[in-house]
Design brief:
Radius of gyration: 31 Å
Distance between the termini: 19 Å
Strand content: 5-15%
Structural class: alpha+beta
Protein name: Sterile alpha motif domain-containing protein 3
Number of strands: 10
Shape: globular
Helix content: 40-55%
Number of helices: 24
């Protein structure tokens, strides 16, 4: 909003009332307003803002939107006094916590997200070795040395009177750059180009006498100075042993990458505590003792959950420094099994980004669902047909998880990607057939391929079964992809010999054209292969099925990153009663999570694991995960790819 506004600000009560004037008008967000109040009054503690609500007889209510404010209104600063806040160092980098805003709300009033969502509200460690907030929306220029402040004040007065710019001495320029570097390092050791430009712009706005009239923007020179200053500042930090910088030293690089610019490890996805330092009073050896004690506690039948959380918090810095050495997931799982838990993934994400994971992700997804569906319906062509087919599943089900799964799947399709490349679908098979009573031993087979009754693409029975019996053909229809089965001549021959041993018939000649036709009708997905032994006809005779799952294990072992789903045999996945028996996550051939609620919940957990383990986004779903990060989670959302930028603009219309 344009135009100067003035607020009456109360600090505790009517006995401490102050006035603040904002030249640019009422800020757009509550966070911006809180930051201006924090800067103007030099507030160092965490607080929230309240305003007088006319609908409530001028009672003070928590401020959720700046649209409730008007000129010459009254605001109240309410300090957040808890044990954790009092123990935190009262420095200039303390965050303003505004309860009720999207950045801190738990979204409990929208949709039930997860039973472990309450874990998201844990407060970060009060240790000064960890950062408490991310890069601010408005950079606040700090105070410089006394000599520099006096010269800048004189220069600003001269600029207002005569428009004369100040030419600072090398000593004053060095003091200014040193102060800015100290402030930048509170948020990141590797500021991006646009962040340095933001700092330079804030400097010239706070001190107009430092404007460079000969440049296009007026602060290009300061941006260049800052870039060089941060390079030199990182050298000092490396010599001092700062972990976020020392991991990129030449002696810590792999062979063949020992150049300064090779494989720089730095925050790339909005990480706040990318590589925290070892806490004061602790060493790597003492934290290793804590890790061993944690490992012992996790293996107990009756775990002390409070102790596990406390030790996971204490060993955070050790764990992060190990992760940045890029260990293999199976080895890391053996050392840190407590991390691979839904609650701990939420807590780890909170430590890394200071943002709650599950509540923020699902809450924003719920808030944007109607807008996303509106945008999806504008998509045409093959992608539009796929989206309409996926969204049709929501018509037969009122389950919120089904709706979330469909929206996330359509989001990938809209971005010209396919979430199915990440999801492996299997069917839980009863070895005695679907009509027989279930037994304890259950095995997995791929999800069956559905063909319409009038679909000309349905495989010809004679060609596809290659002489197999009707029951064998029925078993084969439960396989989503049969390429491995049909392409193996050895297995085909064994199946034919097995059939002949049960019910001999004249030999069936299989032509090469017949096999090629059957293979051309197969799904491109990898699947499990079922191997039947001692097979006899149904009815009068008794038969025994021994279905091997060796290919299932081989398929999982060869998977780098995937979400798997298991559905009971006979369930209709598109029907209202269709439910998943299990949903889990696989990383580097290891099942790291299981028994998740839905595919959408698995996507949230996989997204959290990518942060916790410092992994890269899947190449086939790069835009999808970028949308998760920059639209749903609002992390590093200032710079978007063209596809995600176009989607965000359409959502704002």
């Amino acid at each position: 909003m344009a135009g100067k506004v003035t607020f009456r600000v109360l600090f505790g009560g009517e006995d401490d009332a102050r006035k603040v004037t904002i030249e640019s008008g009422i800020p757009i967000t509550v966070e911006d307003l809180a930051l201006k109040i924090k800067t103007f009054f030099q507030v160092t503690e965490q607080f929230r803002l309240q305003y007088k609500d006319k609908d409530m007889n001028d009672q003070f209510m928590n401020l959720l939107s700046t649209s409730e404010l008007e000129d010459k209104g009254t605001l109240k600063v309410v300090y957040i006094l808890n044990d954790t806040t009092r123990s935190m160092p009262l420095t200039g980098d303390a965050c303003c916590t505004i309860p009720g805003t999207p950045s801190s709300a738990s979204y409990s009033s929208q949709e039930p997200c997860d039973s472990d969502t309450s874990n998201d509200t844990i407060i970060l460690s009060s240790s000064p070795e960890t950062r408490s907030c991310s890069w601010p929306q408005t950079f606040v220029v700090p105070r410089f040395s006394s000599c520099a402040e006096i010269m800048l004040q004189t220069g600003n007065d001269e600029f207002k009177a005569h428009g004369t710019c100040l030419c600072p001495t090398p000593k004053v320029r060095s003091d200014i750059l040193e102060g800015l570097a100290e402030e930048i390092i509170k948020y990141t050791a590797y500021p991006r180009d646009e962040q340095l430009e933001e700092v330079a712009k804030a400097l010239t706005q706070s001190h107009p006498c430092l404007l460079e009239k000969a440049t296009r923007t007026g602060y290009c020179g300061w941006k260049h100075y800052l870039k060089i200053k941060m390079m030199n500042f990182r050298t000092k930090l490396s010599r001092a042993g700062h972990p976020e910088v020392i991991i990129n030293s030449l002696k810590n690089k792999r062979s063949g990458q020992q150049t300064p610019a090779a494989n720089i490890k730095k925050p790339r996805k909005g990480d706040v505590n990318f590589c925290p330092n070892i806490p004061n009073g602790e060493t790597r050896d003492s934290l290793e003792v804590e890790r061993v004690a944690l490992l012992t506690e996790v293996k107990k039948k009756k775990k002390d959950e409070a102790m596990i959380k406390e030790k996971m918090q204490r060993t955070f810095s050790l764990r992060r420094q190990e992760i940045l050495q890029e260990p293999k997931i199976p080895e890391f799982l053996k050392k840190w099994p407590a991390l691979f838990d839904v609650g701990e993934i939420n807590l780890e994400f909170m430590r890394l980004t200071t943002v709650p994971l599950t509540s923020k992700f699902l809450g924003e997804l719920h808030r944007l669902t109607n807008d996303l569906i509106r945008v999806f319906h504008t998509k045409g062509g093959a992608a539009g047909r796929k989206i309409r087919a996926v969204m049709a599943k929501t018509h037969n089900s009122e389950d919120i998880n089904v709706r979330r799964d469909c929206v996330l799947s359509c989001l990938s399709i809209y971005l010209n990607e396919d979430l199915d490349t990440l999801v492996k679908e299997y069917v839980e098979v009863n070895p005695h057939g679907p009509e027989e009573p279930e037994v304890k031993r259950q095995v997995l087979a791929p999800k069956r391929v559905q063909y319409a009754s009038d679909d000309s693409s349905a495989p010809n029975k004679k060609d596809s079964c290659c002489g197999l019996s009707a029951y064998e053909l029925k078993r084969l229809e439960n396989i989503r992809e049969r390429e491995a089965f049909l392409s193996s001549l050895k297995l085909l021959t064994a199946a034919e010999d097995l059939r002949q041993s049960v019910n001999p018939k004249p030999d069936v000649k299989r032509s090469k054209a017949s096999l090629d036709k059957a293979q051309s009708l197969l799904s491109p997905r990898k699947s499990l292969r079922l191997e039947a032994r001692n097979l006899t006809l149904r009815g009068k005779l008794t038969y025994e099925h021994d279905i091997e799952c060796s290919e299932a294990k081989a398929d999982v072992a060869g998977t780098t990153m995937a979400i798997y789903t298991v559905r009971a045999e006979g369930d209709d996945p598109d029907g209202p009663g269709g439910s998943l028996a299990d949903v889990g996550v696989v990383l580097e051939g290891v099942e790291v999570l299981h028994n998740l609620e839905s595919i959408s919940h698995a996507c949230v957990m996989l997204y959290g694991l990518i942060y916790a383990l410092n992994l890269s986004y899947p190449k086939s779903l790069k835009n999808t995960f970028e949308a998760y990060q920059k639209i749903l989670m609002d992390l590093e959302s200032s710079k978007l790819s063209p596809k995600v930028q176009a989607l965000k603009l359409k959502l704002l219309r």
